[in-house]
Amino acid sequence: MSWPMYRRVERQARQLQDMMDRLDVDPVALARLDGGRAFMTARSLCLHCGTSDLCLRWLECPPSPGEKAEFCPNHRLFGLCNRRC
Predict the structure, then answer these.
(1) Can you tell me the mean pLDDT for 45-70?
(2) pLDDT in tens, 21-51
(3) Average pLDDT for residues 52-67, to the nearest whole number?
(4) Can you give the three-state secondary structure of 7-71, one letter per residue?
(5) Cβ atoms of 30 and 81 closer than 8 Å
(6) Are the C-beta atoms of residues 9 and 1 closer than 8 Å to each other?
(7) Of 7, 16, 65, 72, which residue is least crowded by CB atoms under 10 Å?
(8) Reported pTM
(9) Residue 74: how many CB atoms within 10 A of its CB?
(10) What angle do CA 26, 31, 35 make, to 5 degrees?
(11) Whole-angstrom Cα distance, residue 11 to residue 14?
(12) Is residue 64 very low, low, confident or very high in pLDDT (cuts 50, 70, 90)?
């Protein structure tokens, strides 16, 4: 893998983790969902996401109660694995 591609993959992986933390996603629940395929899908969607710039700006803002990241292609999946539900 070329260095620029490696950096992109690493950055997107960090963003995925930051988004999961911000939305209080239970990583164990996500890893178990659909035998692990849900997490692989989430990771792939994040890697190829067309809204990563919007995601970064959203993550930089202070969190607000009940916030949702409806722009995120993983939004619905993350909602299934939310610790608050």
Answers:
(1) 89
(2) 999 999 999 999 999 999 999 999 998 988 8
(3) 89
(4) HHHHHHHHHHHHHHHHCCECHHHHHHHHHHHHHHHHHHHHHCCCCHHHHHHHHHCCCCCCCCCCC
(5) yes
(6) yes
(7) 65
(8) 0.85
(9) 25
(10) 140
(11) 5
(12) confident
Q: How many residues does the chain have?
A: 85
Structure tokens at 12: 């997107």
Contacts of 9 (CB under 8 A, 6+ apart): 1, 47
Chain mean position to CA 40: 11
Domain residue spans of the chain: 3-80
Nearest to 79 by CA among 37, 29, 18: 29
Percent of the chain with pLDDT over 70: 98
| Cα Rg, the chain, nearest whole Å | 13
- Tell me the CA distances in angstroms from 61 to 17, 18, 39, 77, one per residue in order: 16, 12, 25, 22
